[in-house]
Amino acid sequence: MPRKRILVKSIDTSISYQVIGIDLAKHLVSACLITDAGEIFGIDRLTYDDLLKSAERMSPTLFCMEPCPEVHYLAEKLQGYGHHTKVIDGAAVKEYIKTHFGGQKTDLNDAQAIAFLSLDTNLPEITPKNTSNSVLSSIQAVREQFRKEYIQSFVSLKGICQRWGLPISKGVMNKNKVEELVSESKKIPQEVKDWLLELLQSCRELQKRLNKISKYLKEYADNDEICQKIMSVPGIGPITATRLKATIGDIQRFEKPKSIVAYYGLVPKSKATGHNEKKGGITRRGDRVARSLLIEGAGVVLNLAAKGFLRSKPLNKWIEKKRKLKMPWGKLCCALAAKMLRIVRAILIQGTSFNAKIAGVARCSLPKESRNNVMGNNKLSEIPSPNGSVYIH
Question: Are 263 and 154 contacting, i.e. CB atoms less than 8 angstroms apart?
Fold first, then answer.
């Protein structure tokens, strides 16, 4: 395939293209077009309207992009015109620029890197969200922003109080109690008190918004069949369930249980040189908020198990086995969060709810016929039990 790139100003819709790589910006895009004959055309600046108008007149083509806020909207539009879309991880594009373009990062180089990387069938791709999942993701993003503002404001208020000799303990989160301490303090000047009380009022407003948006997500989860199935798993509530629904998309794209765990960055890093292999920390890939919520839920499940309130005997046995290995608390939480994700995948594929009697059943405990079948297709989570439930590994 020739390396020379021919610069053009617009897309020739009469030509059949193998792939079109797009580097997205706020108002303009850069595009690299590879024809079926192997010719490479580059467009330095192209508006979104011109891109969509050209796409509407073109024959079905593969459009490839990097993940960014516009990618979901653009992918939905292109798919509506009959095209295929593919989203490539930005880390892969960065490495391609480093090795093939000597680190010369330009919009056209990025577009060409995206186009060539899309031809690699072994490269993992990111699935764009549909409209319903985008709605959930947007609401979750607003909630996360409110939560950050609330925490930052409250921590800032405590820090200012400490500056004037009024330390407020970490456990004090009641805003009425804080207001009482600030108002009665003789160490804080009155003009500072006034603004501290204004900041406290802002925290109250943020708390009301958080409660309102959390109530909406709870009502949504209570009326959604998928969220109800996800919430049947211990440690998962409406906030986590709606987040998982928004980020999982089509559950069938996760062929193996480990695939969904890797998608959320809960698998350990593997470092091997020669015959020495070491496992590091988790990869932390995928959705950060969903991963954080899952680990938090896993901590709740561990506390329930420690107090004897966890009803699932197989999960209790699994947790007790890990405890005997003297795993650190954080590592155990990550391992249990990965286990919860495997269970979520299994119940969504089968369309059932969580079964406390069989959740966590190992492969060796399965009937012999089912175990032989599993060895062949490596889909343990899809093997039904005699009573119609699902064996979950």
Answer: no
Query: Which alpha helices (H) appear in the chain, and where do they start and end?
Result: 48-57, 71-80, 90-100, 107-117, 131-163, 175-184, 190-222, 225-231, 238-248, 257-263, 288-306, 313-324, 329-350, 368-377
pLDDT tens for residues 169-184? 777 778 888 888 889 9
What lies within 8 Å, CB to CB, of 110 at 6+ separation is 23, 30, 66, 93, 97
pTM, entire model: 0.81
φ, ψ for residue 59, nearest 5 deg: -75, 160
Which one is predicted more confidently, 264 or 366?
Answer: 264
β-pairing verdict for 268-273 and 125-126: unpaired
What are the DSSP calls for 247-267, one per residue?
HH--GGG--SHHHHHHHTT-S
- Positive or negative CA dihedral for 366, 367, 370, 374? positive
Does the structure show a pLDDT above 50 at 378?
A: no
Residues forming beta bridges with residue 86, ordered by sequence position: 64
Q: What is d(CA 148, CA 174) in angstroms, rounded to the nearest whole number?
A: 18
Of 375, 235, 226, residue with least CA distance to 302: 235
Q: What is the DSSP letter of 359?
A: B
Rounded Cα gap, residues 172 and 155, in angstroms: 11
Measured CA to CA, the distance from residue 161 to residue 118 in angstroms comes to 55
Contact 218, 238 (CB under 8 A): yes
Cα–Cα distance measured from residue 112 to residue 96, given in angstroms and rounded to the nearest whole number: 10
